Amino acid sequence: MLKLLKENRLKIKVSPNNDNHSKLYILRNKNDLTSRLQGGVIIGSSNLTHNGLSGNFEINTELRDNAHIDEATQIFDILWKNAEELSLKDIEEKIIKKLKNYPPKVKEITHENITPYGSF
Question: Which pLDDT score, from 0 to 100, does residue 34 have?
Fold first, then answer.
């Protein structure tokens, strides 16, 4: 992914309000990108992670008609237009730096470092 970012072949954007938690996957047939959109749309709760795809209980729906693909593309285009692009520096500092420390070290829980409210 970093290679694609450095080659300016990939852009990552974020919602300026941090209020977008939707998952919309638009799949297009490779042979039909320039004319009428053909493919599918998946809308649901799954993240593109191991747990999101196979571990958690998730609900998604797949739509294959052109009207839904067109509508999903319009929604995506609006969201993309209003989103803020992350620079390579932002990505390295805000994302990659955090991933290097993932998973976080587990802190031992004892009666000295936990309150009654913290145990819930």
Answer: 54
